[in-house]
Write a structure and sequence with these properties.
Elements: E1 2-6, E2 11-15, E3 17-19, H1 21-34, E4 36-50, E5 63-70, E6 73-82, E7 91-99, H2 102-111, E8 114-129, E9 133-140, E10 144-151, H3 158-171, H4 184-191
Antiparallel strand pairs: 1-2, 2-7, 3-10, 4-5, 4-8, 5-6, 6-7, 8-9, 9-10
């Protein structure tokens, strides 16, 4: 999976590509040569929807609210994709803040009638390429292997950033025709029959 977050302006631009095991390890070998290894982590993301405005009502959901566990830290994250309610989005607004008390947040969600949708669990290895891209190799439980690229340099417009992402993906030997248009929560709910 490829993901770009333009530096410090709460805009995320993403393309996703699932990888088979051979390509996954080939990419990992390339990255070990051309990029700096940053860290390995386990990540758990729990997705919720308010029942008074169900995020799954549109044919193509464009809003996602999650509680993210990153080691001993917990974050509340909200994403709103554009254009809305289309199969292929170009970018999203992303807002995130650290939460000190997970149990209290879950109680607040319950009182406000928020429903838990799905939990995405992944093992992630992160690499940095020339302070331009952060590349994540993901093993996602029940979904498989993916690659994610995040633009940590601001390339200007959404269109220019997407162009740079595709160019970088091609330079790694990735077949960009296999781009996955949906995120992990959508793919997991689809696989489990929770979305038609």
């Amino acid at each position: 999976m490829f993901l770009a977050i333009m530096a410090n302006n709460n805009i995320e631009i993403e393309i996703k590509i699932p990888l088979d095991e051979n390509v996954f390890f080939q990419i990992k070998e390339k990255l070990q040569k051309i990029a700096k290894f940053v860290k390995r982590s386990e990540q758990i993301d729990e997705y919720f929807t308010p029942l008074h405005r169900n995020f799954l009502d549109p044919k193509f959901p464009f809003e996602w609210l999650s509680i993210r566990r990153r080691g001993d830290k917990i974050f509340l994250n909200y994403k709103h994709y554009y254009p809305e309610n289309v199969e292929t989005t170009t970018h999203c607004d992303e807002f995130e803040t650290e939460i000190k008390n997970y149990d209290q947040l879950v109680k607040i969600f319950s009182v406000l009638n928020f429903k838990k949708l799905v939990t995405v669990e992944k093992e992630r290895e992160i690499f940095n390429y020339n302070d331009e891209f952060e590349i994540a190799l993901d093993r996602v439980k029940d979904l498989g292997l993916f690659m994610e690229i995040e633009a940590i340099k601001d390339f200007g417009s959404v269109e220019e950033t997407r162009k740079k992402l595709f160019e970088f993906a091609k330079s790694l030997g990735i077949d960009i025709s296999k781009t996955e248009k949906k995120g992990y929560p959508y793919l997991l709910m689809k696989k489990k029959g929770l979305i038609k």
